[in-house]
Amino acid sequence: MLSACQKPNNKTDIKVPSIILWAWETPENLKFINDENIGVAYLSQTILLKQDDVELRPRRQPLEVNESTFLIAVTRIETNKISRATLSDKQKSEIIELVLRTLKQKNVNAIQIDFDVVVSEREFYRKLLTDLRPKIPQNIPLTITALASFCIGDNWFGDLPVDEAVPMIFRMGKDSESVKNYLASGKDFNDSLCKNSYGLAFDEPLNVTFQKNRRFWYFHNNWTEKDLEKIK
């Protein structure tokens, strides 16, 4: 695993910053970031799976960062709930190819997959990540986002070949109160992949005592320098 405050292990020799700002599908000027401990995970592309098709939606909004900023290219995967995806080997191969292309974007240091899988999609996701990891250079971290409920009681992904799973502790819907109460009681995530980081929303504060030496990922739109100072 990659820890924010530990030396990287033998698998990867890239130190991921301790604070990561998600830059989603809005225009973002993040040139005010001049701290090596702060990185940017930007939505690079969205992939929509519909029946046996793979529809690519590249990032449409501008992103401005300094040359030295640590960048993570995020691929968002969505499935059509009406025209259900076949989750075929063909789709898997196409997704892998599209994810690998993000490594060719300027100054990318790591990649992340954002896929809110339902139970019927889990095996497909497992195969996707298992086939993807060997195609990525060993020194490139691979992370995923994870529903907080996965990290607490629904531990189906602990053996996935990724370096970190980021628990999304915001916009949790029906699980919101139970997850917040669980963390507020002092309990920690059960799955080891989830014990390196917290995924938070800038506009959704939590009454939680966070565990030490973890990475903080913050979701927000239209970041400003004042927002960053509040996080610090």
Q: Which features would summarize this protein structure in a list?
A:
232 residues; two-stranded parallel ribbon; 20% helix; 29% strand
Layout of helices and strands, plus pairs?
Layout: E1 19-23, E2 28-29, E3 38-50, E4 53-58, E5 63-64, E6 70-79, H1 89-102, E7 108-115, H2 122-132, E8 142-147, H3 148-152, E9 164-168, H4 176-184, E10 197-201, E11 215-220, H5 225-231
Parallel strand pairs: 1-3, 1-11, 2-5, 3-6, 6-7, 7-8, 8-9, 10-11
Antiparallel strand pairs: 3-4
Helix pairs in contact: 1-2
If you had to describe this structure to a student in words, what would you say it looks like?
The model is unreliable at 1-12 (pLDDT under 50). The chain has helices at 89-102, 122-132, 148-152, 176-184, 225-231; strands spanning 19-23, 28-29, 38-50, 53-58, 63-64, 70-79, 108-115, 142-147, 164-168, 197-201, 215-220. The protein is built from 5 helices and 11 strands. The protein has 232 residues and is α/β, with parallel strands linked by helices. Strands 1, 3, 4, 6, 7, 8, 9, 10 and 11 form a 9-stranded mixed sheet that branches. Strand 7 (108-115), helix 2 and strand 8 (142-147) form a beta-alpha-beta unit.
